[in-house]
């Protein structure tokens, strides 16, 4: 019988339950998929703790790769036996499972050169990195960016992609081991935020000018420092809230700090158009297949160990990408 992780209440990792799961036949617009590998993302913790509210009981997880076992009426872009990957939001919630029914629309056919494990480790992170590097800002070679959580899954991909575009990357980390990992993936300068003031160090590294763009996935604890790291008319990209949501502020603050721009993008809005999603996917998969982007899978878990996996995420023990292997 299929297995799945479900939750009947929100809270800490202990609310996750490993259970038997019935999987029926796909209805119109659906497929039945057998998972081979499942992505573990920090965003999953937001569903678990109620930051992203969903009706309960609920499955969890939004990203996985596997093989199509059956297709419902009206499904034409994938067929039985296809290797596929997917990511999404509430429309794909329930990926922590060995088999499941899922809407066909989010599915992406997997290139032969990309393994299931690599796909599970990179579909969300890769598409996120793709829109950050190709849609958010018109990067020109020679510019400098600040990248928080540089040793995380998205951080390691963005660092490498930035080097392909001729950018200088300043990354922030919390340990020397993470600093070494960030440097190995393209960071030109690494700041240990547990020992150094980020904005002060950024100004030193940029001769007082500041950076063109900040990618901030941390949120509350880094927000002010990120703004103080930007050059005049620089762009603050809020891509996550690992330390908590950013408190309300007066937009006049952006003017006082140099007519700054601020955006809070979401992946869903950059892959809503099938043509744009296909374009971004082709670019990121092409870079990975050609070896221009390396995807590091640093943690592998069994599905029944989801509680421990979430504990590791919460304690910031993880680096790079984490997956469940079936």
TrEMBL record:
Q: What UniProt keywords apply to this chain's record, in alphabetical order? A: NADP, Oxidoreductase
Q: Which PROSITE patterns match?
A: QOR_ZETA_CRYSTAL
Pfam families named in the record? ADH_N (PF08240), ADH_zinc_N (PF00107)
Q: Which residues form a coiled coil?
A: none
CDD domains reported in the protein's UniProt record: QOR2 (cd05286)
What name has this protein been given in UniProt? Quinone oxidoreductase, NADPH-dependent
Gene Ontology MF terms in the entry: mRNA 3'-UTR AU-rich region binding; NADPH binding; quinone reductase (NADPH) activity; zinc ion binding
- Residues spanning the signal sequence: none
Q: Does the keyword Chloroplast apply?
A: no
Per its UniProt record, what InterPro entries does this chain match?
Answer: ADH-like_C (IPR013149), ADH-like_N (IPR013154), ER (IPR020843), GroES-like_sf (IPR011032), NAD(P)-bd_dom_sf (IPR036291), QOR-like (IPR047618), Quin_OxRdtase/zeta-crystal_CS (IPR002364)
User: Domain of life of the organism in this record?
Assistant: Bacteria
Which EC number(s) are documented for this chain?
1.6.5.5
- Enzyme class, one word? oxidoreductase
Looking at the record, the residues that make up the Enoyl reductase (ER) domain are 11-324
Q: Which SUPFAM superfamilies match?
A: GroES-like (SSF50129), NAD(P)-binding Rossmann-fold domains (SSF51735)
| GO CC annotations, alphabetized | cytosol
Work out whether the entry's keyword set contains Nucleotidyltransferase.
no
